[in-house]
Amino acid sequence: MPVLSAIYRYPVKSVKGLAMSQSEVTPLGLPDDRAWMVTSDEGVMITGRDYPEMVKIETDVDAHSLTLSAPGMPMLSIERSQFSAACDAHVWKDQFGAWTGAHEADAWISDYLGRKARLLYTGDPQRRVRQHPDIPLSFADGYPLLLIGESSRLQLNEWVGRDMDMARFRPNLVVSGAEAFAEDGWKTIRIGNVVFQIDKPCGRCVFTTVDPHTAQKSDDQEPLRTIAKRRKGPEGAEFGQNVLARNAGQIETGMPVEILD
Q1: Which CATH superfamily does the domain covering 3-8+141-259 fall into?
Q2: Which of 31, 66, 74, 130 has the largest CB neighbor count within 10 A?
């Protein structure tokens, strides 16, 4: 039986992920996953697609604060309460309310990126999943959770001809012990007492070409070039599955993944 082999969350959109051995999960996803986002003054998202050095920003988060660190930058802790001014935020075609006001964080991010930027906090999310308006959504691209099979990554490595670190693909849930791309055929799975709906494939972008350790884009556009050639579908270059949690519960690595449908 397949097992849950890794759990990741990304407190700030586009920054380095945090590996977790266990986590609560709700329809909103993992706690504080993409709860913060870097934006322009107008609230338009700034991501690693255009600023790959964002993958070198590391975070720590607790019930009260977010801590940022990056090469050449002082460590900075920001209280959640500092995000006290309502503002507009934009993710793709979605416009919704968020929170600003952490001016030290704005200055820190601006210094690191070499351009004026702000750090927004989603708070109690006002945004919803487009195809499922009853489900709340953070600053994630379009879904609360992304699942990828480890065997799928290994198959991609064979196609590309070198190792493609799972961190390139920014999953929340990694499943081992299934055949390559078995997740494409799953509709409903259960991990622990949480039931997940596999909703649609994830279309991939140029961000996958950024090395998560060096922040350098690959000269040969891999692995996106191979994904586009081998995995072309309605969502474009498809790799991984967008997932919805149908209830709240606790998950941990090593748990079996039961295929319900």
Answers
A1: PK beta-barrel domain-like (2.40.33.20)
A2: 66
